[in-house]
Amino acid sequence: MIKTTLGRAGPLLGLVLLFLAGSLLSPTFLSSENLLNVLTRSAVIGIIAIGATFVITGKGLDLSVGAMAALVAGLSVLAMNAMLPTLGPFLSLVAGLLLALLFGGAAGFVNGGLVVWGKIDAFIVTLGTMGIMRSLITWMSDGGSISLDFALRDVGRPLYYGTVLGVPVPVLIFAVLAIGGEIVMTRLRFGRHVTAIGSNAQVARHSAIRVDRVRLATYVLQGLCVGLATLIYIPRLGAVTPSTGLLWELEAIAAVIIGGTALSGGYGRVWGTVVGVLILGLVANILNLTSLVSPHLNGAFQGVIIVIAVLLQRRRSID
Amino acid sequence: MQQNQQPGVLRLDGVAHAYGPNRVLNGIDLSVGTGEVLALVGENGAGKSTLMKIVAGYLAPGQGAATWEGRPIPSDPQGAEAAGIVLVHQEFALIPDLSVAENILLGHEPTGRLGLIDYAAMRETARNALRLLKSDIDPRAGLAGLPVSSWQVVELAKAFAARPRLLLMDEPTAVLGAKEADALFACIRDFVAGGGSVIFTSHRLDEVLAISDRVAVLRDGEITLDRPTDALNEHDIASAMIGREMSDLFPPLSPLPTAAPILSVEGLSVARNFGSPVQDVGFDLAPGEILGIAGLVGAGRTELVEGLVGLRPATARRFALKGVERPLPDAVEAWQLGLAYLTEDRKARGLLLGENLQVNTALTVGALTGGTVLDPGAEARLYEQAQGRYSIRAASPRIAVGRLSGGNQQKVLIAKTLASEPEIVILDEPTRGVDIGAKGQIYQVIADLAAQGKAVIVISSEMSELIGLAHRILVLDRGRVAGIIAPPEGERPTERDILDLALGLGTQGTPL
Predict the structure, then answer these.
(1) ∠A123-A128-A134 over CA atoms, to 5°?
(2) Which residues cross the membrane (chain A) (predicted)?
C-alpha cells in the first residue's frame, strides 16, 4: 500500500526534490522571473503532451507532433501573410489562429483515420506522417524559413510575451488546458472510454463503446493541441524553419511517461503529465543556472529520469 | 519399477490432476501397447487434452504414475520427445514466416560441413515426410501462404519426421478434408505396422471406429469405457460419453410461452478463418423463452451469435425484431436494440480486469445511455443493486475486478451485461470456470430473466445445463443446424438426443 502510494506520488516527489535541489544550487532559481520563465518555456511542450496523454492512454502513439507543429505553423504563417493586405493585422491573426486549430485537427484526423480505418500500427502511421510533414515544411520553406510579416508580429506578441495578472499567457493557456484535460480524463465519459480502449479494446467493443470513434477522437484531440501550441509558438519565433518542433514528440512522450501514464495504455493522468513536463523543464533550467554539469548533458539527465519513472511504474503494476 | 520394461508400452496408474480447486482427471488407469491405436473420446472438458499433455511431458501428473517403457515419463516435452513421445497440437505450433521444410525440421536441421544448414537435405527429408502423407505441398513454400488444412499436414509431417515411437494427436482431423484424412489414416496404419503406437482424440465417432484398435471414453475426468473397437458401435461410445444425473441445481422451467417471436432469424451465415463457416442458420425466439444452443467445440456456436450481434461480419436472409425486418445490427446498434451478448471469455473480452467493480458494471449501460459527465452516485447505486440481485461477494466496490474469484467475476459480468435491461439476452457459456454454488445462482438468474418475459439464448458445452434450463435446444454441427429439439410439455430431452445431432449421427430430435 505504501509502495503503491509512493508509485502514484513518485513524479510529484521528484518535482519537489528538483525544486529543493534548484533552490540550494542556485540563488536565482527561486526568483519568480526564473520560475515563470521555466513555466512559459514548458507550456508549448506541455500543451502537446496533454494531447499525447490521451493518445497514449488509448494505447496509441503519435510520433508526428513535432513535424505537425512545424507544418501547421508554416501553413498558418503563409495564410496570415496572404490575408494581411485584405483583412488587416488583427483579423488576419485571428483567422490564422483558427486555421492553425483547423490544420492541426485535420492532421490528427489523417493520423487517426489511417490507424482506425487503414488498420496500420500507430507507430508506423505517425512515423510516416512525421516524415511527410517534416519534408513538406522543408520544401515549403525551401530549406530556409517562412517569416511572419512584421505587422503581424507586433499584434501577435502578447500571445507569448503578454501577461494576465502577472501570469504569462502561455502559462495561462497551459493551466486551463491541464485542468480541462484532467476533468475530461477523470470526470467525463470520453475519458473513461479512452481508458477502456487502452486497457482492453476487445472488452470495450463488447461493451457498446464505439472503439474506432474514440480512438480517432484521441488523434484529433492531439492535433488540436498541436494547433494550439503553435499559436503561442509562432509569435515567439516569428518564423518557421525546417527544424521547428524537432524532437518535440520525444519530449512530449517522455513527459507523459514520467507523469505515470502507462505506455501500454489503459491508465492515464493529465496532472502527472503536467508534473512530467515541469520536471523536464526544471532539469534543463537547473543545468543552465549552475555550472556543476555542462548543460549539454541535459539529455542524459532526462534519459535517466525517464528510466527511473518507468522502473517505478513497473513496481506499481506488480503490486 | 523395472519389472515390465517392454518397449513401446505406456502405462498410467491412478493418474489424477487438478488445476487449482478444479479437478480434471481422477484415478486414470490406462495402457497402450506396441502397434496399438487408442482413440480417446469424451465431451468438451472431459479431460482429454490434460491427459495428452501429461503423456507428452507438458504436465507432471498431480498423483499416480505415468510410465513409458517402464520408466517415468520425463516431465518436460524435450525429454519426452527424446524418449520417442511426440504430441501433435490441436493449436498449431508452427512458425508462419518459415518455409514448410524449415518448419518440419525445426530443431533437427541437418547440417553439412562447417556446421551450416544443408538445405538440400532438409528439403529432401521434408519432401519424403510429406509424401508419406500423400501430400504434394512444396517444401520450399512459405507456410504463411498455405491454407489451414496444409498447416495440419505440415504439423503431422513434422511429427512423423521426428521419428516418434508414441504419437499423440489431439483432434488431428478437425480441419482436414476427407482425402487428407484418409492419407493420414493410411500413414497411421503404416506407422503402427512398423511398431509405433498412437493415441488420438476425435469428436468424429465414424473416424474413431475406422482407425482405432481400442477406445477409451473419458467423462468428468474418469474412464467410463475401455474396450477393443471391434466390440463397439457408435451408440455404445455415445452412451459412455454422457451420464451424470441432472442435479437439482436447476430452477423449475417456466411454461413455454406462446407469444409471437421477438427475434426471427433466417439464413444467417458467418464466415470463419478456421473451421466450417456458419451457414443458413434460422430460428425464432419468443419473449419468456430460453433457447439452448449446443454443439461440439468448433461447431460455430459463438461465431453464430457474434454474427447476430454485429461482432463479426455476417449476412442474413431475414432478421426481424418484434416482427419488424431490418438489416443485421452493428455491435453498438445491437445493444441499442435491446440485444445483449455475454461473452464466453470474461477475462479477454468481458471485463476490464484492472478497473473496479463500479466502473465495470456501469461500462456498457454508461456507453449506451449515460451522459457526457460521469455520475459516480448513479454508478454506486447501480453496483449496490447488482450486488444484491446477483449476490456478488467483494470486500469493496472499489477493488479491481481481476482480484475476485471466477464466480464473482462472472456475476459482475452478468450484472454489466444486464444493466441496460435488454429484451433479448444471449449468454455464451455463462457458467464457465465457476464453482457449483455460483452455478446454481446463475441458473436462477437465467430462469428469472425468462420469468420476467425476456427472451434468452444460452450457449453451453455442458449438455446437462441446456437440458435443465432450456425450453428448446438448437444443435449445431459444423456450422449448420442439425436440428432443434423441442420436447413436448413436461418432458426433457436426453444428452443422447443432443449428442446424436451434434455428432451427425442422424436426427433423433424433432427436426425443424
Answers:
(1) 120
(2) 35-56, 63-84, 90-110, 122-140, 160-184, 216-234, 246-263, 270-287, 293-312
Report the C-alpha gap between B91 and A180 in whole angstroms: 49
Given a cut of 90, whether residue B177 has pLDDT beyond it is no
For residue B374, the Cα-to-chain-centroid distance in whole angstroms is 39
A218 vs A220: CA distance, rounded Å: 6
For residue A290, what pLDDT is reported? 85
- Of B4, B57, B77, the closest CA to residue B34 belongs to B4
Angle between helices A32-57 and A270-289 (to 10 degrees): 140
pLDDT in tens, B286-309: 999 999 999 887 788 999 999 999
| Total domains in the fold of chain A | 1
Residue B266: closest CA among B301, B318, B330, B215: B318
Q: Which three cell numbers stand for residue A166?
A: 502577472
For residue A178, the model assigns a pLDDT of: 97
A57-61, B253-257, B442-446: the lowest-pLDDT one? B253-257
Amino acid identity at A253: I
CA-wise closest residue to B483 among B468, B504, B464: B504
Q: What is this model's ipTM?
A: 0.87
Residue-wise pLDDT for B334-367, tens only, equals: 999 999 999 988 888 999 999 999 999 999 999 9
- Give the cell for residue A141: 520553406
Q: Is residue A186 part of a domain?
A: yes
Look at A205 and B335 and tell me if their CB atoms are within 8 Å: no
Cα separation, A105 vs A225, whole angstroms? 8
Per the DSSP assignment, residues forming a β-bridge with B425 are B340, B456
Task: Answer with the residue of higher pLDDT: A279 or A158.
Answer: A279
- Residue A1 pLDDT > 50: no
DSSP state string for B329-374: P-HHHHHHTTEEEE-S-IIIII--TTSBHHHHHHHHHHHHH--SB-
**If you average pLDDT over residues B373-391, what whole number do you get?**
93
Q: How far apart are CA B490 and CA B254, in angstroms?
A: 10
Mean pLDDT along residues B109-138: 85
Alpha carbon distance B321, B336 (integer Å)? 12
pLDDT value for A161: 81
Does A208 reach chain B within 8 Å, measured CB to CB? Answer: yes
Query: Is residue B451 less than 8 Å (CB to CB) from chain A?
Result: no
Residue A2 lies in a domain: no
Q: Is the Cβ pair B351, A210 closer than 8 Å? A: no
The answer as to whether A1 is a domain residue is no
Q: Mapping DSSP to helix (H, G, I), strand (E, B) and coil, where does residue A256 land? A: helix
Q: How far is A313 from chain B (nearest CA, A)?
A: 15
**Residue A20 located in a structural domain:** yes
Please report the domains of chain B, with CATH numbers, ordered by start residue: 10-241 (3.40.50.300)
Look up residue B431 and give its three cell numbers.
457458467
Note whether A270 and A50 are within 8 A (CB): yes
Q: How many residues does chain A have?
A: 319
Q: What is the pLDDT of residue A314?
A: 67
The minimum CA-CA distance between A96 and chain B, rounded to whole Å, is 31
CATH number, position A291: 1.10.3470
Amino acid present at A24: L
Helix A169-187 and helix A32-57: axis angle, to 10°?
30
Pairing outcome for strands A146-147 and A239-240: antiparallel
The minimal CB distance from B374 to the residues A188, A205, A267 is found for A188
Where does residue B55 rank: exposed (0-12), middle (13-18), buried (19+ CB within 10 A)? Answer: buried
Q: How far is the alpha carbon of B367 from chain A, nearest alpha carbon, in Å?
A: 6
Cβ distance B373 to A189 less than 8 Å, yes or no, reads yes
DSSP E strand boundaries for A91-151: 146-147
Residue A244 lies in domain = 9-318
Residues of A in contact with B416 (CB under 8 A): 207
Which pLDDT does position B221 carry in this prediction? 85
